[in-house]
């Protein structure tokens, strides 16, 4: 029989655990552990959810990886590249590439009777993955655009629509400058909102055929190719592989190729997201520290209150190690109860917020979303619980050595 575990269970479940002095200490320890775990679960789920949503939105606008002309990186007035059948076959051969799609840019201006606004017209073809924008549509639809005919249909953001006092179904005049000024009248067939203001305030979507005509490009020329990956973890490796393959290659029109990923195109945003990892570690360290110190206080009170029990056990031949294990097991029971309540409350918040979004954000354009985002994987949940339990118990090992200083004869004074 495991005597320390047996005695710890008896003390915890029996009337001896409800002593007047130790009961408040036990309750405070349970409360401290529960609050610490709740804060950790909420903090991790919110920060991970925020990073994931921001990343997914940026990827939704430009995919994981872009194949473009070197001088066009970070520039909307782009030079074209040629998408040949050979290049298409090579892109399809990459196991990490889930999907690829063409796009073309044309900077221009929207003008109404009362205002004008700069914008970038993004042309896409029928193969364009519309799933991201279909989730962001407020009105109308994001149609499957053609690559062979000009439809004069356009999808605009709510930000631009509000600035220009436009609504679904309106026709807008757009102007583009090359050697001369060219005008196009487009009809709004959809209004989207992603809360990424730097993109919402800039992009309109239409068919790639019209954008290529405005640019006076050939049918096989585009601003670039967007590539979606199966696994975000393969981003760097896939960028290197594709970049190495197209390095120093030129198309029939004399333009070079280069591969650039979403993190390289948006370094400031992703550097900011990486800083959030520091916040997670600071919060975890503080909460585990607070919960651990409340447990240390509770353990010392339990030891002092049961000095006579310690003396009795020593008089019957129990060594310090077994008695220390007894109190450590007793602490594990207390920690476990606190973690149980912490998990129940923390997971309740997580699922309520995930399903119903009850906590809104005051300024969606600042936070890039309108409700507090949450995301918590099974592994995050498991590591938080296992890590909290192990660290809390390890923090109690040192204070448990105070038992060695208790002498059987001296302990009789506490009877």
What does this structure look like?
This protein has 415 residues and is of the alpha+beta class. The protein folds into two domains: 3-57 and 269-414, no CATH class; 70-256, no CATH class. It is 52% helix and 18% strand. It has helices at residues 3-13, 22-62, 85-93, 131-136, 158-163, 197-200, 208-215, 235-246, 262-265, 267-305, 307-315, 320-356, 364-367, 378-397, 408-411; strands spanning 65-68, 81-82, 97-111, 116-124, 137-140, 153-157, 171-177, 181-192, 203-207, 221-222, 224-229, 258-261. Strands 1, 3, 4, 5, 6, 7, 8, 9, 11 and 12 form a ten-stranded mixed sheet that branches. Strands 2-10 form a two-stranded antiparallel ribbon. A hairpin with a 3-residue loop joins strand 7 (171-177) and strand 8. Helix 2 (22-62) packs antiparallel against helix 10 and helix 10 crosses helix 14 (378-397). It is elongated. The model has no long low-confidence stretch (mean pLDDT 88).
Please describe the topology of this protein:
Layout: H1 3-13, H2 22-62, E1 65-68, E2 81-82, H3 85-93, E3 97-111, E4 116-124, H4 131-136, E5 137-140, E6 153-157, H5 158-163, E7 171-177, E8 181-192, H6 197-200, E9 203-207, H7 208-215, E10 221-222, E11 224-229, H8 235-246, E12 258-261, H9 262-265, H10 267-305, H11 307-315, H12 320-356, H13 364-367, H14 378-397, H15 408-411
In brief, what are we looking at here?
The chain is α+β, with helices and mostly antiparallel strands.
Structurally, the number of domains stands at 2
H/E element string?
HHEEHEEHEEHEEHEHEEHEHHHHHHH
Low-confidence stretches: none
Give the rounded overall mean pLDDT: 88
Number of helices: 15
Helical content class: 40-55%
Distance between the termini: 28 Å
Rg for CA atoms = 31 Å
The largest β sheet comes out as: 10 strands, mixed
Q: What amount of the residues lies in strands?
A: 15-25%
Number of beta-strand segments: 12
The helix/strand class is alpha+beta
From the spread of the alpha carbons, the general shape counts as: elongated
């Amino acid at each position: 029989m495991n005597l320390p575990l047996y005695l710890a269970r008896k003390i915890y479940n029996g009337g001896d655990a409800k002593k007047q002095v130790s009961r408040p200490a036990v309750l405070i320890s349970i409360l401290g552990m529960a609050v610490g775990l709740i804060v950790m679960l909420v903090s991790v789920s919110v920060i991970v959810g925020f990073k994931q949503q921001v990343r997914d939105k940026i990827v939704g606008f430009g995919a994981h990886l872009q194949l473009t002309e070197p001088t066009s990186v970070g520039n909307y007035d782009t030079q074209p590249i040629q998408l040949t059948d050979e290049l298409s076959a090579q892109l399809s051969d990459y196991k990490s590439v889930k999907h690829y799609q063409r796009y073309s840019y044309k900077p221009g201006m929207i003008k109404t009777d009362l205002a004008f606004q700069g914008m970038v017209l993004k042309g896409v073809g029928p193969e364009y993955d519309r799933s991201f924008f279909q989730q962001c549509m407020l009105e109308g639809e994001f149609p499957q655009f053609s690559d062979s005919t000009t439809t004069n249909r356009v999808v605009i953001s709510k930000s631009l629509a509000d600035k220009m006092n436009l609504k679904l179904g309106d026709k807008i005049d757009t102007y583009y400058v090359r050697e001369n000024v060219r005008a196009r009248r487009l009809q709004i067939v959809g209004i989207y909102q992603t809360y990424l203001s730097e993109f919402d305030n800039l992009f309109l979507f239409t068919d790639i055929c019209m954008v290529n005509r405005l640019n006076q490009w050939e049918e096989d020329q585009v601003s670039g190719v967007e590539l979606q990956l199966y696994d975000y973890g393969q981003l760097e490796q896939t960028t290197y592989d594709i970049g190495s393959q197209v390095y120093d290659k030129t198309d029939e029109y004399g333009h070079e190729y280069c591969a650039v990923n979403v993190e390289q195109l948006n370094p400031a945003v992703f550097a900011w997201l990486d800083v959030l990892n520091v916040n997670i570690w600071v919060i975890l360290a503080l909460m585990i520290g607070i919960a651990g110190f409340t447990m240390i206080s509770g353990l010392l009170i339990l030891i002092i209150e049961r000095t006579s029990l310690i003396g009795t056990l020593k008089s019957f031949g129990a060594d310090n190690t077994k008695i220390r294990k007894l109190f450590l097991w007793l602490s594990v029971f207390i920690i476990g109860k606190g973690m149980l309540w912490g998990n129940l409350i923390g997971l309740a918040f997580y699922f309520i917020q995930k399903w119903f979004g009850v906590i809104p954000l005051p300024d969606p354009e600042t936070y890039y979303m309108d409700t507090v985002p949450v995301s918590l994987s099974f592994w995050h949940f498991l590591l938080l619980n296992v890590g909290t339990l192990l660290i809390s118990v390890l923090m109690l090992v040192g204070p448990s050595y105070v038992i060695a200083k208790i002498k059987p004869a001296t302990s009789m004074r506490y009877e």
